[in-house]
Amino acid sequence: MTDRDECSFPYALFFALIGFLAGVLTLVLRSRRNLTMSATPSVAQDAPSRAIILPESMPTGTLPSPEDLTIIEGIGPKVQAVLRAGGIHSLKQLSRTQPAKLKALLVAAGNRISNPDTWPVQAALAAAGKMNELKTMHAGLKARRKY
Fold it and tell me: In angstroms, rounded to a whole number, what is the distance separating the alpha carbons of residues 13 and 19?
């Protein structure tokens, strides 16, 4: 027998140890992933004291821009341009404008089709962030519209 035939290093024990450690690592990683996926959103214990905590009912990224008038049912890009030319640049301004003034702006621009009667109410809801109420109002307006 040569020195190459006899090996004093216990390869079987070494590979068994590697397999055991790989299994333990897999279990640890799976348990950490399951904890992060199943955890309910709550205030973290280590959150900074100045962190902004949003209510669970308010999804982030769904509030419209205060300058985006097209969120209002009946206002598209062309009508938005007419309103901006008339000095109405934000939802707050639109919510404080009388429908008669809005109609006069539209007629002066050659638009006799648009009906601005509900625009101030819709703008007030959007400016206040009441998107669920605004969507409900949009659904009612679309149901009343006849094609």
Answer: 10
Q: What percent of the chain has pLDDT over 90?
A: 29
**Tokens 């109002």, residue located:** 137
Integer Cα distance of 108 and 98 in angstroms: 16
The 10s digit of each residue's pLDDT in 70-98 is 889 889 899 999 999 999 999 999 999 99
Contact between 100 and 147 (Cβ < 8 Å): no
Q: What is the extent of the structural domain holding 103?
A: 69-144
Are 69 and 75 contacting, i.e. CB atoms less than 8 angstroms apart? yes
- The total of structural domains in the chain comes to 1
